[in-house]
Amino acid sequence: MRKIIYILLMLGLCRCSVYKKYERPAINNLDSLYINTSSGDTNSLSTLSWRELFQDPLLQQLIETGIHNNTDLQVARLKITEAEALLKSSKLAYLPSVSLNPQGTINATENQGPTKTYDLAVSADWEIDIFGKQTNIKREKKAILQQYQAYQQAVQTQLIATIANSYYMLLMLDRQLEISRETATTWTENLRVMKALKKAGQANEMAVAQTEANKLSVEASILTLEQQIQEIELSITALLKESPHPIKRTTLQQQQFPDTLSTGIPLQLLNARPDIRQKEAELAAAFYVTNQARSAFYPAITLGGALGWTNTAGGAISNPGQWLFTAIGNLVQPIFNRGEISANLKVAKAQQEQALLAFQQCLLDAGVEVNNALIQWQTARKRITLNQKQIQSLQNALEDCELLMENSSLNYLEVLTARQTLLQAELAAVTDRFDEIQGVINLYHALGGGYE
After folding, report:
1. 84 exposed, middle or buried (CB, 10 Å; 0-12, 13-18, 19+)?
2. What is the pTM of this model?
3. 106: exposed, middle or buried (C-beta count within 10 Å: 0-12, 13-18, 19+)?
4. Are 291 and 20 in contact (CB under 8 A)?
5. Which tens digit of pLDDT belongs to each residue from 202-256?
6. 353 vs 347: CA distance, rounded Å
């Protein structure tokens, strides 16, 4: 009696272990994941839909086309369909498996005519899930489905960020090309003036050659910008799964973004970042695989039976036919392969530990991405403020040069030099403006935005 009670108690403890659900592990130093931001601010940039953040109508059309057509996103959707089918299959495993097994034979001997026998039976097998094997398989498949759902979101958020970044890069290059063409015009005028000064004896051949070299350098940079524009247009059409064509777009000056950006609290990353959710789903799946490995130590109980119609019983031929019924109970307890089962459990535990480390590292990497994006945006805004002051000063200097040239003997070349300096400052301002926009995109993506 005591042995029976002991066995029942051990089985009860076993069931508690193998039926245990996954729980998120404790995460140390989560509150200190962000720097240069207030941890009490619960509003996050990621709560904005991509339509609210990217208000350019032409960019919105590109993003909608990409979401509909992109190959990687279509593959991600198919992976979800596959995972849903596997989850459904694991749920059906709780039900008995039923099969039809018709059989018929004809026997004949030299002195006796043919004898016909038949069995028309339906058989069923049902494994009772006492030790959690089927339950853990179902939970594992559900975790895998969540993993693929998070993967789809990760692909979509990356796609949106890539399209937006490429679009704004086109706008930056358009503006740089415009300024570079103005610069080339200035250098052409510089060269004309320098040749006139040389003819008047006020400049030498070296000054003319240097000016011409600068002019050719700017013209070469224009060709490079035009090449980059074509390459980015091709990359965008590839993302959209379309044949190459020019990308319709507005201008960099028309773009508007929020003046303040909030990261929210670090805890929101666990639910917003798709890659973190994907890693946690992998951890949950590994947890249930470990439970399955534990279940293998305990017996498997299977019930089986058959019901049908036959014209033979026990080898004796009888007509007409009669009912056939069998019932079987089967219990299998592993004995000689416990070493293999133990090894499988160790492997499952090791893989679960690897998944835990990957989950923790993914969270740390996400914090680094958020911090980098926030620093990029903040630094770019500071540079833009300085650029605006520099451009204003250079514009004032250019106006003074033009006035001095009209009322004094100031050389026209000095005016051209002032214009050239102003154009270079405007070129730097364009780069900083794109850097600011890129910081917004990177922060939005790092916080897990872009899915809704």
Report:
1. middle
2. 0.81
3. exposed
4. yes
5. 778 887 888 888 889 889 999 999 999 999 999 999 999 999 999 999 999 999 9
6. 10
